[in-house]
Design the sequence.
């Protein structure tokens, strides 16, 4: 039997002993030597003013959302909040570059991206409030559950995009991950699968400088995280993560490329986590204030505002208007989060399996009895039922 | 269970000897033919047909997109299957060997087992993870683990394991059709076991979660599953010479666990031995013994005993016969079931 006759021969390439050439030409895959920028560069001339204004309004809203969510932890209304303050350009752009039929795969820090995609902020924050795990139907919004085990959402995005492509559906998956997450095995496996399958996926790394306390230098020796793409045979793009116009453009191009059937792209956005890892973390233990101060000068909201005001696209009244809209969003969120969520303990047993096992039925009955006794006690005092 | 005697159109069918491996392959084929959302993926499952040849012919019949040779990365395979299931497919993942399923544990524990729960029932994952497991085939290191205890201890997973050719077909069909994730453990030393079986009219199978009495008896109950069933059946035959008439229960599914069938049997016989080759400490036998004691205490004439693999890493092939529970160890345990009133 010759190679051509073998089943599966199409995918099989014999290794030629004498001549060697690379499987993929690495040159076009390499990222730019410096993060790509639009704001304050010549490239801004091509930017759509309406898009810039939309980005501005969303950034202001996003900044306010982060502040409100952090405040809710102090009032005991959220168990914990990992803020994306300083990273709003990435969060907003990730949401805006997708069509409704596309899928977003957020990490645990990316509630803002989900909200910017149109998800009700209360539903986005439900996990962090703690009354249930996922506050929304992922299929309804095409937003995967917020993912806490680092990088594990990345192969899901690949599988989903692959399935959509097999069905002939025009669907792109955009998966978000942090710099720390790129060290996980699932990051490697997902990128490799995506490249081999030519899956319509965009891997979006927010390099915010830290994985909790660990700086990037302890995470990787690669030239940049974007360079990792080359090893998988996909293009890597490096972008200034605080330049909303640049992030939007680079992600849009990656999404368009995926849509054209040309396969996945790895985008690294260089940004900075302005707050501690979460409200429960103390960032002074591992970084100096001067670093944080330096990044303030490169704040995504300020960068965009400066550009827009210099070009006469935005004035003080416009800024005020954006702030007022954000304030209204925050007030509504605050009010709704101040209502106690309704707890449904019996639901603990409802969604373990399609059908409850006999063991779960027994355990549910035991909890039911405990709850009834509690209620009896509350209504009739300690002597009730004795 | 008896083999059906007629085809769908009423013609009589002659059952012919078939191996468990063939029945498993046929179950995959029939599931794929019936449901276009069923996709098989794994290492070497396409062109080669899998290292145990269970997926032989599937890529040829259904194409590479339905039976896919993936890159070599178990977490990636299972993680991709999660995404495929999120999009409405019904993936069947093949892990090449028990010990090589470990890289996929995070995906299994954190996502596959929990997704239905995490999403309040909105996004169940109908994934079947096929894992060849257990020893007795002369495999070198890392090819003979009994990993069922890890899966059993993870709420959200079904854990199913066939011991007969009929069940291999029926339980795999049921597992693939299930809207819950199923870890389908294939006893690899029974892959080549044979029984009369007719692929045109395979026996109907009960829904997963039901144990079955393979051999009725009155003296004591042997409770077992998968690779240890033939050992127990042989032990039951040998026990007749000692005057013991042993009942043998084949669990077929560790999760859900069929308390009813097990307890009914032990109440009848008053004595029980759990037999499996996975290590005893922290193994399935402890859970099963506890469940029996909780339900049948007043019917028990003796403590529930366990015959299990030693609490050691799986031994090298030339020593594995000392590790695997055999007929003699089962009979020794039966002998220790306090038959004398004063013992
Ligand atoms: C598999 C896994 N290991 C450890 C953790 C605990 N953990 C949560 S966030 C985090 C740091 C993540 O850093 P990075 O990926 O850079 O994302 P960022 O927090 O900066 O958004 C760690 C270690 C986890 N969630 N998952
Ligand atoms: Mg980080």
Sequence:
């Amino acid at each position: 039997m010759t190679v051509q006759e073998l089943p599966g021969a199409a995918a099989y390439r014999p290794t030629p002993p004498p001549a060697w050439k690379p499987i993929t030409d690495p040159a076009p895959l390499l990222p730019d030597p410096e993060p790509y920028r639009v704001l304050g560069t010549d490239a801004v001339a091509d930017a759509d003013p309406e898009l810039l204004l939309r980005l501005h309004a969303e950034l202001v809203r996003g900044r306010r959302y982060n502040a409100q969510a952090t405040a809710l932890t102090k009032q005991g209304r959220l168990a914990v909040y990992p803020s994306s303050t300083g990273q709003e350009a990435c969060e907003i752009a990730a949401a805006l570059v997708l069509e409704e039929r596309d899928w977003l795969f957020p990490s645990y820090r990316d509630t803002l991206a989900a909200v910017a995609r149109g998800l009700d902020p209360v539903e986005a924050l439900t996990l962090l409030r703690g009354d249930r795990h996922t506050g929304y139907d992922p299929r309804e919004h095409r937003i995967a559950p917020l993912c806490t085990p680092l990088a594990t959402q990345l192969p899901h995005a690949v599988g989903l995009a692959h399935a959509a492509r097999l069905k002939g559906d025009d669907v792109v998956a955009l998966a978000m991950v942090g710099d720390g997450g790129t060290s996980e095995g699932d990051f490697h496996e997902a990128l490799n699968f995506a490249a081999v399958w030519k899956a319509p996926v965009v891997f979006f790394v927010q390099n915010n400088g830290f994985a909790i306390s660990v700086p990037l230098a302890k995470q990787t020796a690669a030239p940049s995280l974007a360079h990792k793409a080359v090893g998988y045979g996909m293009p890597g793009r490096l972008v200034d993560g605080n330049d909303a116009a640049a992030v939007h453009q680079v992600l849009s191009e990656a999404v368009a490329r995926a849509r054209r059937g040309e396969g996945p792209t790895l985008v690294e956005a260089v940004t900075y986590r302005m707050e501690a890892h979460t409200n429960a973390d103390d960032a002074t233990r591992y970084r100096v204030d001067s670093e944080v101060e330096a990044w303030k000068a490169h704040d995504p909201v300020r960068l965009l505002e400066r550009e827009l005001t210099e070009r006469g696209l935005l004035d003080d009244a416009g800024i005020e208007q954006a702030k007022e809209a954000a304030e209204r969003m925050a007030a509504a969120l605050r009010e709704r989060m101040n209502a106690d969520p309704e707890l449904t303990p019996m639901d603990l047993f409802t969604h373990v399996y399609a059908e409850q096992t006999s063991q779960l039925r027994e355990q549910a009955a035991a909890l039911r009895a405990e709850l009834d006794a509690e209620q009896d006690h509350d209504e009739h005092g300690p002597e009730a039922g004795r | 269970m008896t083999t059906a005697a007629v085809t769908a159109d009423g013609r009589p069918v002659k059952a012919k000897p078939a191996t468990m491996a063939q029945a498993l392959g046929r179950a995959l084929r029939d599931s794929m033919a019936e449901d276009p959302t069923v996709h098989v993926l794994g290492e070497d499952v396409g062109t080669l047909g899998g290292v145990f040849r269970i997926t032989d012919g599937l890529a040829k019949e259904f194409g590479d997109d339905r039976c896919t040779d993936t890159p070599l990365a178990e977490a990636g395979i299972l993680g991709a299957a999660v995404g495929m299931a999120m999009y409405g497919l019904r993936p069947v993942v093949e892990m090449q060997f028990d010990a090589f399923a470990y890289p996929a544990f995070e995906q299994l524990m954190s996502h596959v087992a929990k997704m239905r729960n995490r999403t309040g029932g909105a996004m169940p994952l109908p994934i079947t993870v096929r894992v060849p497991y257990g020893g007795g085939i002369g495999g070198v290191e890392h090819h003979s683990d009994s990993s069922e205890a890890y899966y059993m201890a993870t709420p959200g997973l079904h854990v199913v394991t066939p011991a007969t050719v009929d069940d291999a077909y029926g339980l795999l069909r049921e597992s693939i059709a299930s809207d819950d994730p199923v870890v389908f453990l294939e006893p690899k030393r029974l892959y080549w076991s044979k029984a009369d079986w007719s692929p045109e009219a395979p026996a109907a199978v009960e829904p997963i979660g039901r144990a079955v009495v393979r051999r009725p008896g009155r003296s004591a109950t042997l409770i077992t599953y998968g690779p240890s069933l033939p050992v127990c059946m042989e032990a039951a035959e040998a026990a007749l010479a000692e005057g013991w008439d042993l009942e043998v229960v084949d669990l077929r599914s560790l999760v859900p666990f069929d308390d009813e069938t097990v307890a009914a049997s032990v109440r009848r016989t008053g004595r029980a031995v759990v037999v499996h080759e996975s290590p005893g400490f922290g193994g399935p036998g402890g859970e099963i013994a506890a469940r029996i004691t909780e339900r049948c205490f007043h019917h028990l004439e003796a403590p529930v005993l366990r015959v299990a693999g030693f609490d050691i890493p799986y031994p090298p092939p030339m020593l594995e016969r000392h590790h695997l529970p055999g007929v003699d160890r089962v009979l020794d345990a039966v002998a220790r079931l306090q038959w004398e009133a004063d013992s």
About this structure: Residues 360 and 366 of chain A are 10 Å apart (CA to CA). The beta strands of chain A are 103-105, 173-178, 201-207, 210-211, 214-215, 236-240, 265-270. Chain A has a mean pLDDT of 95.
